[in-house]
UniProtKB/TrEMBL annotation:
Transmembrane segments annotated in the record for this chain: none
Protein name, UniProt field: 2-oxoadipate dioxygenase/decarboxylase
Keyword list, A-Z: Dioxygenase, Iron, Oxidoreductase
Enzyme Commission identifier(s): 1.13.11.93
One matching Pfam family: HGLS
Length: 468
């Protein structure tokens, strides 16, 4: 009988780091073009850091420099509630919790999604790796016979190895995994995300499901939810986008998300289009298109007010001429519309559009040490004005539904335009998941508030609550 002992447990953050490293190595071996993308990003990051010594110094100081080359996210799609709920348990072993609900049906993609990610400041700092996880909405397949067939095919598969299931249960029972078990867990978990070049269905079934939607075929016809992309962080996404073709990559047409700005907000993403790969159906040879490579650049997290402004401006641009992001002047229109979004941190903060982490400066610490602070005006604005406190942008750790739909398109050859009469079904998603998802904006709000409470605890010995 094994003797669990908390002191021997590997930290969940470390298991997540081991897992993301193993995924990266596997995906580079499986999709060589992804390795080319990683090299490109690393070259562009080196150039950017070379040209901006201040950025390099700041990143070195915060510890970000050493983590620059670790992957930031990946994505998978599953077919059943049991698969989703078991993934929740698998990711929990690595300290990843479901955050956010994304309804992609509005964009013509028959899935809804969450992101499994670390939640605490310390865990995000240790390794922010996340997995965007989509659940197929079989009810959106119009043909009842095909829908039932898809459900029956999915019901027959087991996407987790027996040992992975055992280790999840062991971790839940004991509260952790020791070093050898953690390594075994990573090895076994990896099997779920591996590519299978043999489909579980015949060519005709594949074609019928593909006609319902290409993503339906992708989810239903294989033994597991192959990882469909990984995403490193770039320091200059426009330069990387421009350079992709010079290294033989077929880049998607536009960078998703906000335009290039002085103060980056939310998330910008682009990818090379999914590759056509040879597969074997049970009766014939064929091809399948699912796997690609993506890059991301993150900015400050927005408040509900900031997010509403973002959504409104983006909708204005996309509604013009109903061309979405396909129109040739998209970038110019995007930049034009976003002039209405303040582009200085002072303004973003003062107008309550973005979240910041407040810390005491050396000057503020000196005042606290001399106990002169207790009598002073300690509203945040006063503290910032006096230079006792600094405000650092809180990074956006989540995804954007319109952008995600644009990234999904890289799988769909661009011509797939389905319309679904569906609406968001967060309750159904959470029932399948077996848990509620975190409200992402509440998490940023709480992170900002923790930083404010910590300040006031130092300045007064008691936490205060004023956030403005
Ligand atoms: C997920 C697409 C969404 C992102 O970065 O927005 C995504 C998928 O293609 O399965 O990964
Ligand atoms: Ni992605």
């Amino acid at each position: 009988m094994h003797q669990p002992s908390a002191s021997n447990f590997v930290r969940a953050d470390d298991i997540r780091s081991r897992f993301s490293r193993a995924m990266s190595a596997m995906y580079r071996a499986e999709v060589p073009q992804y390795g080319t993308l990683v090299e490109l990003v690393s070259d562009i990051n080196a150039q950017t850091l070379g040209a901006q010594p201040a950025l390099r110094a700041q990143m070195a100081q915060s510890g970000e420099l050493e983590r620059l080359d670790v992957e930031r996210h990946g994505a998978i799609r599953v077919g059943t509630a049991t698969e989703l709920a078991t993934l929740r348990r698998l990711f929990a072993v690595m300290g990843m919790e479901p955050v956010g609900y994304y309804d992609l049906s509005v964009a013509g993609v028959p899935v809804h999604s969450t992101a499994f990610r670390p939640v605490s400041d310390a865990a995000l700092q240790a390794n922010p790796f996340r997995v965007f996880t989509s659940l197929l909405r079989l009810e959106l397949i119009a043909d009842a016979a095909l829908r039932e067939k898809a459900a029956a095919i999915l019901a027959r598969r087991q996407i987790f190895t027996p040992r992975a299931l055992e280790l999840m249960a062991q971790c839940e029972a004991d509260g952790g995994l020791n070093d050898a078990d953690a390594d075994a867990f990573v090895r076994e978990a990896l099997e779920t995300f591996r590519w299978h070049s043999t489909a579980t269905v015949d060519a005709e079934t594949y074609r019928a499901l593909q006609a319902a939607h290409r993503l339906v075929a992708d989810v239903v016809c294989f033994r597991g939810p192959h990882i469909n992309h990984l995403t490193p962080r770039t320091l200059d996404i426009d330069a990387a986008q421009a350079a992709m073709p010079t290294r033989g990559m077929d880049a998607k047409d536009v960078v998703e998300g906000p335009p290039r700005r002085d103060c980056p907000i939310l998330l910008r993403q682009t990818s090379f289009k999914a590759l056509q790969e040879a597969v074997r159906f049970t009766d014939d040879a064929g091809a399948h298109t699912a796997r690609f490579g993506e890059i991301e650049q993150r900015g400050v997290a927005l408040t509900r007010k900031g997010r509403a402004l973002y959504d409104q401006l983006l909708a204005e641009v996309r509604d013009m001429g109903h061309a979405g992001s396909a129109a040739p002047d998209y970038e110019a229109r995007l930049a034009q519309a976003f002039r209405a979004f303040p582009d200085a941190h002072d303004a973003l903060r003062a107008q309550g559009l973005a979240f910041y982490r407040y810390t005491l400066t050396a000057l503020g610490q000196a005042q606290a040490d001399m106990a002169t602070a207790a009598d002073a005006d300690t509203s945040l604005n006063a503290l910032l004005a006096k230079g006792w406190v600094r405000a650092d942008p809180i990074t956006y750790e989540d995804f954007l539904p319109v952008s995600a739909a644009g990234i999904f398109q890289s799988n769909l050859g661009g011509e797939e335009q389905k319309q679904y009469q569906a609406h968001a079904a967060q309750n159904a998603f959470e029932t399948a998941l077996g848990a509620r998802v975190h409200d992402e904006i509440a998490l940023y709000e709480a992170a900002q508030q923790r930083s404010i409470d910590a300040l006031h605890a130092v300045l007064h010995g008691t936490p205060a609550v004023d956030a403005a």
